[in-house]
Amino acid sequence: MEEGNLNKKVLVAMSGGVDSSVAAFLLKEKARLNDEVGQGYDVSGAHMICWEGCDTNEDRRDAMRVAAKLDIPFHVFDFRKEYKERVFDYMVREYAAGRTPNPDVMCNSEIKFGIFLERAIEMGFDFIATGHYVKKEGTSLKIAKDLNKDQSYFLWRLDPEQISRALFPIGDYLKSEVREIAKNSGLVTADKKDSQGLCFVGKLDFQEFLREYIPKKEGSIVNSSGEVLGTHDGAHFFTPGQRHGIKLGGFAEPLYVAETDSRANTVVVAQGADDPVLYKKEIEITESNLPKNLPEKIFARIRYRQPLQPIHIEGPKVIFDSPQRGVAPGQSIVFYSGEDLLGGAVIK
């Protein structure tokens, strides 16, 4: 947790889960311990409504209960309009164009550390805090203590100003320790399951969800030789590396999406997870925010929790030491040096 940022007002983004609940608790506890010398944080909580139906859900009630338990002021922000424009519409546009976006990355930069931070500053807060598993050093981010929960991958778009205004109280804790703190503190979210699925929307059948917003368009499923194996209802509903949703039978090994072509509306599939057509050693990137002076040894991951892979960069190209499976245009590639998050880019 940050030191030296005392006597400051902090607004905690409280999702209604255990992580943000404990983030609020730790900040309030720091305030309590330092209260006699006037060095504690002035802590408030806030819950964001970002999707239709979320204004009366269990998460909001749980966030309110935790705020009441901690005896901190509680605010509710309605960001449904902004979320639709900045995250949801972006996601649909990307899929319709044949790319695989990462809405959670955009949600963090545009919502949690975007308009939520802006609203907090307007209200007189010095910092915002979240329940992300990540560590901060100055205006840079580092991998969290809990390597299985580290969320630095989703925060690569944050700029130094956003980072300077953010606190990450649980970055130095394991998930098991977070739950133990919640139990010992009597927080109602102590045993609550982690949320899954699209940011703020929750778990859903994503392909069926997309079909409500993007028109179907029948096309061919082919193998790497161009042989037609069957049909699909839209190349934009598929992403490289995907196994489920390919409705073809009669094959000895599972079929995986190797690549898609939205213009030709074709889906190329591979038989078995070891088919070479699934792998790429070189990729092009765009929208990079990497610093000019890079360390000699750089590592990267192309998906959340993937083990870090050694790479080197040549202009807009990233070259991996070993081929990578399921490289998807539109997804994020995030770069590291040791524990330090260097930045990221979008796979082109």
Describe what you observe in this structure.
This protein is an alpha/beta fold and 348 residues long. The chain folds into 3 domains: 9-184, Rossmann fold, CATH 3.40.50; 215-274, Adenine nucleotide alpha hydrolases-like domains (SH3 type barrels, Roll); 280-347, Translation factors (Elongation Factor Tu (Ef-tu), domain 3, Beta Barrel). Helices cover 25% and strands 26% of the residues. It contains 7 helices and 17 strands. It has helices at residues 18-33, 58-70, 80-96, 103-122, 160-164, 175-184, 206-211; strands at residues 9-13, 42-49, 74-78, 127-129, 135-137, 140-142, 166-167, 219-222, 228-232, 255-261, 266-271, 279-286, 298-301, 309-314, 317-325, 332-337, 340-347. The strands form 4 sheets. A 6-stranded antiparallel beta barrel has the order 12-15-14-13-16-17. The protein has a 5-stranded parallel β-sheet with strand order 3-2-1-4-7, sandwiched between helices. Strand 8 and strand 9 (228-232) form a beta hairpin. Helix 1 runs parallel beside helix 2, helix 1 packs across helix 6 and helix 3 runs antiparallel to helix 4. It is globular, with a radius of gyration of 22 Å.
What gap, in angstroms, lies between the N and C termini? Answer: 36 Å
What is the percent of helical residues?
25-40%
| Beta-strand share of residues | 25-35%
CATH architecture of the largest domain: 3-Layer(aba) Sandwich
CATH class of the largest domain: Alpha Beta
Number of domains: 3
Count of helical regions: 7
- According to CATH, the homologous superfamily of the largest domain is HUPs
Backbone CA Rg: 22 Å
Largest sheet: 6 strands, antiparallel, barrel
Low-confidence stretches: 1-5
Q: What sequence of helices (H) and strands (E) makes up the elements?
A: EHEHEHHEEEHEHHEEEEEEEEEE
Form type: globular
Strand order of the largest sheet: 12-15-14-13-16-17
Number of strands: 17
Average pLDDT number: 91
Structural class: alpha/beta
Per CATH, what is the topology of the largest domain? Answer: Rossmann fold
